[in-house]
Amino acid sequence: MSLRIGDTAPDFQAETTEGPIRFHDWIGSSWAVMFSHPKDFTPVCTTELGYMAKLKPEFDKRQTKIIGLSVDPVDNHKRWANDIKETQGHAPNYPMIGDTDLKISKAWGMLPADLEGTCEGRTPADNQTVRNVFVVGPDKKIKLIIAYPMTTGRNFDEVLRVLDSLQLTAKHKVATPVNWKQGDDVIIAGSVSDEDAKKIYPQGWKAPRPYLRVVPQPR
């Protein structure tokens, strides 16, 4: 199964380092970021898990929950956490899913649906496609999918930036331009007519082209 932006995030029950969850219930009315890992005790993922722990207060400010997924057992995740704390300065402060039967990885399109077996005996190279970032909205719809190769560490500052854009554009009828960051000007959405835009932005807007209507970020 191939997931796309706008699809409902597959629900699942799982064991995590913070106890059992049902994914949709765990999200509740929050936003969520799920990021996946091909194997415990891998070097790039070690740096990522530590940095995500450091960034967690920023996600908390945005009412966004974080959850990690690895195809190894939860007990391995807990042992890995010690290495992460010692080498990165921050241990995971969010749940880590144990996907030992690979069901979640397959349901989310990261491994072939017809793949047989469990995590036992599989190498990081076997699981190299389990390297995604998903942002899920309170409506349980997928808002963002980013896939990374094993040798490239993920940019979680960029995930925060995109989250700011997603939350802003979910609330206001605007879009964010290239390299936008919090506080920059935005673009009036194409679905808003000039007539309606005048009601929302009575002060007007800059328009280098009729289809490119620029206004300050709404608050």
Can you summarize this structure?
The protein has 219 residues and is α+β, with helices and mostly antiparallel strands.
Features:
alpha+beta; 22% strand; 4-stranded antiparallel sheet; Glutaredoxin; 219 residues; 11 strands; 6 helices; Antioxidant, Horf6, Chain A, domain 2
Describe the 3D structure.
There is one protein chain. This protein is an alpha+beta fold and 219 residues long. It has 2 domains: 13-153, Glutaredoxin (3-Layer(aba) Sandwich), CATH 3.40.30; 172-215, Antioxidant, Horf6, Chain A, domain2 (Antioxidant, Horf6, Chain A, domain 2, 2-Layer Sandwich). 31% of the residues lie in helices and 22% in strands. It has helices at residues 23-27, 43-61, 74-88, 103-107, 156-171, 194-200, and strands at 13-16, 19-22, 31-37, 64-70, 96-98, 132-136, 142-147, 174-175, 186-188, 206-209, 212-215. The strands form 3 sheets. Strands 5-4-3-6-7 form a 5-stranded mixed beta sheet, with helices on one face. It has a 4-stranded antiparallel beta sheet with strand order 8-9-11-10, with helices on one face. A two-stranded antiparallel ribbon has the order 1-2. The chain is elongated and about 60 Å long. The mean pLDDT is 96.
